[in-house]
Design goal:
The chain is an alpha+beta fold. Helix 2 runs antiparallel to helix 3. The chain has eight helices and six strands; from the N terminus they run ααααααααββββββ. The chain folds into two domains: 93 residues, no CATH class; 139 residues, Nucleic acid-binding proteins (OB fold (Dihydrolipoamide Acetyltransferase, E2P), Beta Barrel), CATH 2.40.50.140. Strands 1, 2, 3, 4, 5 and 6 form a six-stranded mixed sheet that branches. The termini are far apart.
């Protein structure tokens, strides 16, 4: 009986890798939320919930670590564990997350990425429409007829349009939950020999008018006929929500 009792209260051995990684990742999530960079990973609607849960995880992890220490475990150092924690901090807090690109847009199905209601848009000011809105309208013959000639000013990145030399897509990714499920919203831009002046993933501000067309890629019945195109820096938050 005495032997079993001593065995049940034996101190924990080894470094608590799980606790370390849980603590570092939870603290990193809280920091991303405070600095506004959490939007690069998830939809803003989930920020509060995610930050609260990460805060609770920090408290629970610290409590578990304290309880473990009282049992006499984890007294030694592990340089490998500290290196892993440092690598996670660098990955989450220092190295910026890679944004989705034109190559990603070609691999994923295009669309607004959300259930945009064309009827709702019909009563709104077209000047407020984003790329995700126009991506729905330009493939809708009924809506497109109404907006032919509408002046637009949109910002997005260049994505090739089915190897067309006379058109490219102005694109943005739309995040509905997190960047894993993001879908490209694309609007065709009519620009002969565009590849001589612009390259894939380059961010542009395009000013022009929506014009009817019969042979646009992706089934579009409207394209932007640009009156001005200028290069712009990639925005801090490159997605639409």
């Amino acid at each position: 009986m005495s032997h079993d009792h001593d065995h049940d209260h034996a101190p924990a051995t080894g470094f608590p890798w799980g606790l370390l990684l849980a603590l570092v990742s939870s603290v990193a999530i809280c920091w991303l939320g405070v600095t506004g960079r959490l939007n690069l990973y998830i939809h803003p609607r989930y920020n509060t919930f995610t930050i609260v849960m990460a805060g609770l995880a920090v408290a629970a992890t610290v409590a578990a670590w304290v309880a473990r220490g009282r049992r006499g475990g984890g007294s030694g150092r592990s340089w490998a564990a500290m290196a892993a924690a440092a690598a996670m901090v660098v990955a989450l807090l220092i190295v910026p997350p890679s944004t989705l690109t034109a190559s990603s847009a070609q691999q994923r199905s295009s669309g607004s990425g959300s259930e945009t209601d064309s009827t709702r848009l019909a009563g709104a000011d077209p000047a407020s429409f984003r790329i995700r809105d126009w991506a729905d309208l330009v493939v809708n013959p009924d809506s497109a007829a109404k907006y032919a000639g509408q002046q637009v000013k949109l910002t997005g990145f260049v994505a090739p349009a089915d190897k067309r030399s006379d058109m490219f897509y102005l694109a943005k990714f739309v995040v509905t939950c997190c960047t894993v499920d993001a879908r490209p919203a694309v609007v065709p831009v009519s620009k002969p020999d565009w590849a001589k002046s612009y390259k894939a993933d380059q961010w542009l501000e395009v000013t022009g008018r929506m014009m009817p067309v019969e042979d646009a890629p992706g089934g579009a019945v409207l394209v932007i006929r640009p009156t001005g195109i200028r290069s712009v820096p990639a925005p801090e938050i490159p997605y639409e929500y």
